[in-house]
Design goal:
The structure holds two protein chains of two kinds. Helices cover 54% and strands 11% of the residues of chain A. Chain A is mainly alpha-helical. Chain B is mainly alpha-helical. Chain B has helices at 4-12, 17-37, 42-60, 66-71, 79-97, 99-117, 120-132, 136-150, 157-173, 178-193, 197-207, 218-247, 277-285, 289-303, 311-357, 365-374, 391-401, 406-424, 429-438, 442-468, and one strand spanning 251-257. Chain B is globular, with a radius of gyration of 24 Å. At the A-B interface, helix 1, strand 2, helix 8, strand 4 and strand 5 of A face helix 3, helix 7, helix 9, strand 1 and helix 19 of B. Strand 2 (117-124) of chain A pairs antiparallel with strand 1 (251-257) of chain B.
Chain lengths: 255, 481
């Protein structure tokens, strides 16, 4: 007879094993290196990201390709204009000092994300901004590599996220005059009554333009989407990259 | 003079074993409740409790009083042959009988996959959002209605996730705080499930087989109570979303939504009616549920241009969708095939429970409704009120202690199962997914969902008492053949 005590753990685990949450299987993509992806994405001109941005717009189905380009241009200009106005009004402050000047409460939290939807930062009315640092910390090593620095330089990603959210706070304060809030699209009408709506994508484009202009970075802020997702999953970042390239190509076909 | 010791012996060991067995059964019931609430494996839990209750119920007859045995025909086994017949009923006939329900579940899952593959479900959502625009409350209201309609036909974690990845980012992009977006979506999914034919067949199997009460159809149930329950949950979810939204601050987020695969084209406008075809056919004409799924499913595949390949390719597509659908339901199947064993053994355990609880258990519908309304929170965490948790054991007790009508009992348990467990609890598989997807903390979701569970649940119990509280004697459990 064996001297080994009987191991009852497998039996115990079988009976008391916790119920598992059912999750769907994510698609597999061709794995790519971050620097290869960024090199390709950096070739997309700043104002030609419209197909990607509007793919996240709830009212995308109501907007034509030509309208999209007009919106992209105007919203980008709006972000740039408000970045310039802010610098004139407050001086050339760092992102954090600018946030202080606007009376914002900024919180840097380190909360792990899942890979379906990676949350980078959020602004909550009236003056609360959260920057999620976990995503940034995970790619710290990559950001310090020479091949990545060639593309994005010594950019402080947390500052870009903060500036993006600061634009939303400025937008709230000037909602009666700012382009992103006064531009509307007609959804439906009955007789004289018509139902109009703003476009969420315009705010997001302008916020990106604001961060781009204010920080002086030399690359499209949309690259950050791939960079930060990469920290969690090379597969998901590769999938996102494929989608961006596919949407850019589709845009060229539409034109 | 008779000593106390003698009386104790006489009561508990002198042919009155039913009291001891009743108490032990009650303790095992609470043990099962703890087991379920702790998040342990339900299938194994119910298999073990079935075996324990079988041993206790059958063994108890050896020491039970003659009066007790005389009053309970079910416990007269008439020798080894009778015991074997009873055991076969528990471990063979009961799960086999549930096979008819399982077939409905599989076809329903296939239909859900068809609606996803053809883009009908996602088109419905996108078109709804295009009506509502950037006004969060208008969009929430419209989305809740459409989501509830979609889930009258679709069910399972796969379809909920497939719709969730469209609805949730849209709501959040409109500035709706993530917890409210989650709460609103999950509540409306649960509302639709109230008249979902697959869920109806699944839960009805806890009470009776279709042959035992053929009049208790989805059509009868829906017109008598199901629509009301659906509307109540839909309205309370929407109203509370509005209240929560009015109190909250708008938020904007920078988030990357990762590649969900090829972007689907919009499905043709006239196909958007197809999700409700099986339910309408069932309720209106009492047409076969599976027949409805097949007709609407193939119509969707043909009309949306998914069957343009060769015959072989088309067969592969249909087969793949069936496979994916069955995988969606697989995690529940083991549990649901073990439950009928438990339900069967509960009928043998019931006489012992009656000895202990018979005098104190409410026999009046109103009292029962009030009691269940107060205890709604026990439907959370797979507790003793939800049929997809320890509630199956409670039902086993309630069903055999009192003589209530089947539709009334169905509604009594459907509320904690659907409104509380499926719509409001973090142990529901797709709610757990939603929490991870939106990064909402469990407590933040429960803060919104529990008030709704009570708000909707109490109104649904009022409707239950009014609409089902006094059905005729033909609907009683005792009338079931």
């Amino acid at each position: 007879m064996s001297d080994q005590p009987m191991d009852l753990r497998p039996l115990f685990d079988g009976i008391f094993g916790k119920q598992r949450t059912v999750l769907y299987k994510r698609p597999d993509f061709e794995r790519r290196n971050l620097d290869d992806m960024l090199k390709e994405l950096a070739k997309i001109p700043l104002l030609q990201w419209d197909r990607y941005v509007f793919s996240r717009e709830p009212l995308d189905g109501r907007i034509s390709a030509s309208q999209r380009q007009v919106y992209m241009q105007k919203a980008w200009d709006c972000g740039v204009e408000w970045a310039d106005k802010s610098k004139i009004k407050y001086g050339n402050l760092s992102a954090e000092k600018f946030a202080n000047a606007l009376g914002m409460e900024v919180e840097y939290v380190s909360m792990p994300e899942n890979t379906d939807r990676v949350l980078f930062a959020e602004f909550r009315e009236p003056n609360h901004i959260r920057v999620y640092m976990d995503a940034i910390n995970r790619v710290e090593e990559f950001l310090n590599s020479d091949s990545i620095k060639d593309i994005i330089g010594d950019t402080n990603i947390a500052d870009i996220l903060l500036l993006h959210e600061l634009f939303h706070s400025i937008e709230e304060k000037h909602k009666k005059e700012i382009y992103t809030r006064i531009e509307k699209i007609k959804l439906w009408s009955i007789g004289f009554f018509h139902y109009d709506s703003c476009l969420v994508a315009l705010s997001e484009i302008a916020a990106m333009a604001f961060a781009y202009r204010y920080s002086g970075i030399k690359f499209s802020p949309y690259l950050i989407d791939v960079i930060l997702v990469y920290g969690y999953s090379q597969n998901e970042a590769s999938g996102l990259y494929e989608e961006m390239i596919e949407l850019f190509n589709r845009r060229l076909e539409e034109i | 003079m008779v000593s106390k010791k003698f009386l104790f012996k006489k009561t508990f060991f002198g042919g009155n074993m039913e009291y001891i067995i009743g108490i032990i059964l009650l303790l095992t019931f609470f043990g099962l409740a703890w087991y379920c609430i702790s998040g342990n494996n339900l299938m194994i839990g119910f298999l073990i409790i079935t075996i324990i209750w079988t041993v206790l119920s059958f063994g108890g007859t050896l020491g039970a009083s003659a009066d007790f045995l005389a009053q309970n025909e079910a416990l007269k086994f008439d020798g080894l042959k009778g015991v074997m017949a009873a055991l076969n009923k528990i471990f063979q006939s009961a799960p086999e009988g549930w096979g008819t329900t399982l077939v409905n579940v599989c076809w329903g899952a296939w239909f859900g996959r068809v609606l996803m593959e053809t883009g009908i479900a996602s088109t419905l959502i996108r078109k709804t959002v295009e009506l509502g625009g950037d006004k969060p409350m208008v969009t929430i209201t419209l989305l809740n209605i459409v989501t509830a309609i979609i889930f009258t036909a679709m069910t399972g974690a796969g379809p909920v996730i497939a719709i969730g990845v469209i609805v949730l980012p849209i709501l959040m992009s409109l500035g709706v705080p993530k917890a409210i977006a989650m709460f609103s979506f999950m509540g409306s999914v649960a509302a639709g499930i109230f008249i979902n034919p697959v869920n109806f067949a699944q839960y009805r199997a806890f009470f009776i087989t279709p042959e035992q009460m053929p009049e208790f159809t989805l059509g009868w149930y829906a017109t008598k109570w199901g629509y009301v329950a659906l509307i109540i949950l839909l309205v309370t979810t929407t109203i509370l979303s509005g209240i929560y939204l009015a109190k909250s601050k708008t938020s904007h987020a920078w988030a990357a939504t990762t590649n969900r695969g090829a972007q689907q084209k919009n499905a043709p406008f006239y196909t958007l009616i197809l999700p409700i075809v099986p339910v309408v056919l069932k309720i209106w004409l009492d047409f076969s549920v599976i027949g409805g799924f097949v007709i609407a499913g193939f119509a969707a595949l043909f009309l949306c241009g998914k069957m343009k390949g060769s015959f072989k390719e088309n067969c592969q597509l249909v087969n793949k969708l069936y496979y994916d659908g069955v995988v969606d339901t697989a995690p529940l199947v083991g549990f649901l095939l073990t439950l009928p064993m438990f339900n069967q053994v509960a009928s043998y355990a019931a006489p012992y429970f009656k000895v202990i609880l018979g005098e104190v258990f409410p026999k009046n519908e109103l009292v029962l409704c009030i009691m269940f309304a107060v205890l709604l929170c026990m439907g959370l965490f797979r507790g003793p009120m939800t049929l997809v948790g320890c509630g199956a054991a409670t039902l086993g007790v309630v069903m055999h202690i009192g003589d209530f009508s089947v539709p009334f009992l169905y509604a009594l348990f459907a509320i904690p199962t659907i409104t509380v467990n499926i719509g409001s609890c973090i142990t529901q598989s797709w709610v757990a997914w939603g929490l991870a997807y939106t990064k909402v903390e469990s407590k933040d979701f429960l803060k919104l969902s529990i008030p709704n569970a009570y708000f909707a649940g109490i109104l649904q119990y009022v409707a239950t008492f009014i609409l089902l509280g006094s059905l005729g004697t033909t609907w009683l459990m005792s009338a079931v053949k």
